[in-house]
Amino acid sequence: MLVNLKHMPSVTSSGAAVAELACFTPSCRARYAVTEVIYNCPKCGGLLEAAYAKPAQDAAALKKLFRERRMNNTPLDQSGVWRYRELFPFLDDWSHVVTLREGNTPLLDLPLAAQYGGLDRLTVKHQGFNPTGSFKDNGMTAGASQARRLKMKRVACVSTGNTSASMAAYAAAAGLEALIFLPHGNISFGKLAQALEYGAKTLEVEANFDQILALVRVLAEELGIYLLNSVNPFRIEGQKSIMFEMLDQRDWQVPDWVVLPGGNLGNTSAFGKALREAHELGLIPRLPRLAVVQAEGAAPFYDLFTRGGALRAVTQPETLATAIRIGDPVSWPKALHEVKTTNGTVEKVTEQEIADAKATIGKAGIGCEPASAATLAGIKKLTAAGVISRNADVVAVLTGNVMKDPDYIYKYHTGKLEAPGGAKIRSTFGNQSIVVPNDAKAIEKLLG
Ligand code: F0G
């Protein structure tokens, strides 16, 4: 599981650091050693990002290297994250890497979903095929590896479920103690069950995600625990690989749009950074546009994007897509920068729209969890509004596996799903099981 390959240099031939942490705030840009245990700029409080010297290879050599690595059986090359390691060289030694062979997720054509969304063609990059069933594994392998490099013993996160499932698994694989904080009563049982099964100490707090994040930051500081929420810049570095792998799978042909759900906005930040860096390195000739989709009851980023000014937090975020039930997203300055840089957009969708889009992705034989389906619901709205054209080349990122939230599925198909305010959600594409007697004749009659 742990990889032991050759050491990598921590300085370039000119003596400059290969990797540093930099403040994301344009007026500050203070720099720090990559080994400092900080999550915000000590000078101005801004978000931090990893910054690197240019890789030694040119774009053509990098593409060749990434492709050749698919033939190798070494754990580092088999990982769909570490295969692209020249694009996030923050470790000083590959032996720190903890990998469960994350990434390697498929690009799938979904004709039915394309039709539903008003497109000629739609491709999904399904991150639900990851080891713990969500895109969080791409970032967690990076964050957990940095935790080992820093010789941390305990790691912690607050989560709407997927981060915790992923952190529990990677902590177990890395021999770290995992402390998980969850909003009591507001995560799916599938995700809670994963944390328990992977052996994490799991605390359910009577508060929402945003409130618990503030609490966990204090505890991490006081107790010397390494924080693995997406405010951790190394998580973001790992999640960049979702874009690199998508582009590699398309032979570096750039789509017109990349559509993803937005919660705490770490993924939007990661995708934007990945695309900018790929562009700067000459791996792609232009940027695709990012479209971020939020649930109507938890849409502070949509508000920010459409109204301007600073982010106004939603104090009581509500959505059945519990993965994105977040009212005060920490990474909004990064995400706003990335959406604007790509000439992108932000949309919001209703509970009914999410539910029907989800059932449509399910009917394609693929399925995803509710938050992921916000992408298709958003695409439907954006094509209807003429923002995305019918013949556009669109990649939607499905962030979580269909089995993450079976309770939601069962309720939708049996007409028992209710929106947070109590409004009934129509079972538009409902599919109920039928109870039959143990009688061949009766069943024959039923099947016609
Ligand atoms: N989709 C799924 C399935 C998620 O679990 C999350 C976030 C998102 C989308 C939104 O991504 O936060 O980067 O904008 N889940 C986090 C968690 C918050 O704790 O598992 P984001």
Task: Provide structural commentary.
With 448 residues, the chain is an alpha/beta fold. Helix content is 37%, strand content 14%. It has 15 helices and 13 strands. The protein has a six-stranded mixed sheet with strand order 4-5-13-10-11-12, sandwiched between helices. A four-stranded parallel sheet has the order 8-7-6-9, sandwiched between helices. Helix 3 packs across helix 13 and helix 8 crosses helix 9. It starts with 18 loop residues before the first strand and ends with a helix. Ligand F0G binds next to helix 5, helix 9 and helix 13.
Keywords:
binds ligand F0G; 13 strands; disordered N terminus; 15 helices; 6-stranded mixed sheet; 4-stranded parallel sheet; 448 residues; alpha/beta; 37% helix; single chain
Give the helix/strand layout:
Elements: E1 19-23, E2 31-33, E3 48-52, H1 59-69, H2 75-78, E4 107-109, H3 111-117, E5 122-126, H4 136-149, E6 154-158, H5 162-174, E7 177-183, H6 189-197, E8 201-205, H7 209-223, E9 226-227, H8 233-249, E10 257-261, H9 266-280, E11 289-295, H10 300-307, H11 332-341, E12 345-349, H12 351-363, H13 370-384, E13 394-398, H14 406-413, H15 440-447
Parallel strand pairs: 5-13, 6-7, 6-9, 7-8, 10-11, 10-13, 11-12
Antiparallel strand pairs: 1-2, 1-3, 4-5
Helix pairs in contact: 3-12, 3-13, 4-5, 4-8, 5-6, 8-9, 9-11, 12-13
The chain binds ligand F0G.
